[in-house]
Amino acid sequence: MQTVRPGPRRVQRLGDWLDPEPYTRFALKPLTPLIGAEIEGVDLAEPVGESLFADLRRALLEWKVLFFRDQAHISGQHHRDFARMWGELEVHPFLPAGDVPEVVRFEKGEKEKGVENIWHSDVSWREIPALGSVLRAIAVPDLGGDTMWADMGAAYDGLPRAIKDRIDGLEAVHDFTQSFGQGMDPVRLAEMQREYPAVRHPVVRTHPETGRKTLYVNEIFTREIVGESHELLAYLCQQARVPEYQCRFRWTPGAIAFWDNRATQHYAISDYWPSRRVMERATIIGDRPR
Question: pTM for the complete prediction?
Answer without folding.
Answer: 0.92
